[in-house]
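Supplementary Methods, section 5.1.

A reviewer requested that the exact input to the structure prediction be made available. We therefore reproduce it here, unchanged from the version used in the analyses.
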Amino acid sequence: MNSGFVRRVLYPTYRKLRRDKVLAMAAGMRRLDAMGPEEIREFQWQKLKQILDHASKHVPYYRRMFQNLGMTPEDIKEPQHLLSLPVLRKRDIRENLKDLISETPHREQMVPDETGGSTGQNLFFYVDRQALKARLANNIRMNEWLGIRIGDRKASLWGTRFRERRLDQVKRTIKCWFDNTLYVSAYKMDPETIRHSAKRLSSFRPDMLIGFPSALHHFAQSAEVVAGGKVRPKVILTSGETLYDWQRTAIEEALKAPVYDHYGCCEFGAVARECARRDGLHIAADRVYVETVPLAGETEGKELNELVITGLDNYGMPFIRYAIEDMGSLTWDRCGCGLALPRIQSLAGRVYDIVRAPNGNVLGGTFWGHILKQGIEKFQVTQAKLDEVTIIVVPTAEFADDTKTYVLDKVRQACGDKMKVVFELRKDIDLTPSGKHRYVISNVTRQHEAVPKT
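The structure derived from this sequence is encoded token-by-token as follows.
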């Protein structure tokens, strides 16, 4: 469909029919993007104070929390004071779901959601409808950072919900039509399915192609042959998994388009995204307040930080200082693109995607991605105990004993001689229920559950 027609007529008409303020919200976010760092900090802080005040009065869980601490939101006068509030973890939500729901919104204003498929434990929660509109506006604003406007063609190589009702499927199809968006399933990536998907994408000609890094990497390598190089988006956006440098390079070479990383989740929607300079991910500071806390269990001289996020829009079920179970670092240094928004300077992956070695070393997915390249189509590293890892690989024709010897040598150098390495060769590696590929799974890390240092 013509992008200009969608931008000027179809999408605005859809928003009017919905009787919401998504376009007005997006305009307000653009104004914030033009502000300086101090103005942004003050705007964000005021929104944070408002959600804290609401939660202390209208959410039973937080009302008890403030009472037990002998505090009120008025006692939080600067960011350092937030450290007095406990971190909210997924187990807290599972155990206190009803008490985390606000007493003020009507039930019809709340939308149920869930996440957690990548770790095997689903987390159920609620989002109020106003927060959902803010998420849509934020996506419009972030797309514009990369030159993608309302109505430009977008295609998603993504997982879909297995339990999606027929009515929800129809609704999603209608929304995609108004938004000029095509969904292509990432669950099946066999040659025949890829050939069919490549044909659909070639015909649709998306300006932006969105997907999991693992799915896009696999698709790009195949589509280069199957589709004859006809899938040529202007921009490629990765999300849902850690994006490794080797994946970015391979996807860009195959599809001839720049790859930008996006960080989001079901709990908050879009949190941060790279701009054209790709020097960290700009945080939507008007929608989330992001902190870091150190992980427990790292060796002397090592510092791993867990991201802790407070949502600023979801008054129906506020998440305050929520441990998202991802790692990264933050900076408020102004980006060369001109945006004064804070940035996630590095995304180090999932808290549970770390291998801890007997010699005290800590290894994330980047290490394994570097050594598991030659002769390997896919890999997965699992750790059941401190002194043993299992490396599962889907080999290519180039896989040889030399490959195995090289990997073993690098692992021993990094982990010490006490680390036992077990190799498993497989024809394929199963995806998670949400359609993602987990490169590293460590139960040892799960035993060292991340908590703030005291």
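The chain has a mean pLDDT of 87. These observations are discussed further in the main text.
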